[in-house]
User: Which sequence fits this backbone?
């Protein structure tokens, strides 16, 4: 792995984690991280009046999942978001925002195939070794009944310089400034992301989005096999 980020360590200082999460929410809003996910998810939001489950892997403080809930509501779909994060401080922050959380490792998700409607993973894969990221992608495809949305960063020297300079007027803390650059160094080219999708057995194609984002979204095979499947209960807040 390239470099080190505060959120790489599930035992990181809680104060540092809270500061980092607050800065990430701001960066997602300013540089399109939230928009990239909800726009990719929007085409799959069908069946008004339905109640769906959404699993946000590496949920952080839950800002992405809450944005997805708002978009789904405009489509007449009631989404129950549940987040998974290995960091207990992040789970506490998400719960404080009203989100159910499971403290767990994404490599050992306590959920079976087809147990949720939608899986979202935003800016998570770049924290993992490549082989692990591929296993996670394949696992997400099995886990979701309806759709998967993956979003990450597109590697770019321009973006690295830009986020460093922007961190000063945005009043980001010093650790976030460093972490943001490391995140972009760990990011992907479209070709790299597509190769990971292929190796995971997924036919989706990664697309570049504004703010040096890269997104892949697809409808899972489970929805064609079980078009009327209802969400199964999730055990959250553990």
Assistant:
């Amino acid at each position: 792995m390239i470099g080190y980020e505060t959120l790489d360590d599930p035992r990181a200082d809680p104060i540092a984690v809270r500061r980092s999460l607050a800065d990430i929410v701001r960066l997602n809003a300013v540089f399109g991280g939230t928009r990239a996910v909800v726009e990719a998810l929007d085409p799959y939001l069908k069946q008004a009046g339905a109640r769906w489950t959404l699993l946000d892997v590496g949920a952080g403080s839950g800002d992405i999942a809450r944005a997805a809930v708002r978009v789904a509501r405009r489509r007449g779909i009631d989404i129950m978001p549940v987040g998974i994060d290995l960091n207990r401080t992040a789970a506490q922050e998400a719960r404080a925002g009203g989100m159910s959380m499971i403290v767990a490792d994404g490599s050992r998700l306590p959920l079976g195939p087809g147990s949720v409607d939608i899986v979202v993973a935003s800016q998570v894969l770049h924290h993992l070794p490549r082989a692990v990221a591929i296993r996670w992608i394949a696992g997400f495809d099995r886990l979701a009944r309806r759709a998967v949305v993956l979003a990450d960063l597109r590697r770019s020297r321009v973006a690295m310089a830009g986020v460093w300079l922007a961190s000063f007027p945005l009043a980001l803390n010093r650790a976030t400034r460093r972490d943001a650059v490391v995140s972009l160094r760990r990011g992907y080219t479209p070709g790299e992301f597509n190769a990971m999708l292929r190796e995971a057995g997924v036919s989706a194609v990664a697309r570049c989005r504004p703010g040096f984002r890269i997104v892949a979204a697809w409808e899972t095979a489970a929805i064609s096999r079980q078009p009327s499947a209802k969400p199964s209960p999730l055990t959250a807040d553990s």
Q: What stands out?
A: The longest strand covers residues 144-153. The chain has nine helices and seven strands. Residues 12-224 form a domain with the Rossmann fold fold (CATH 3.40.50.150).
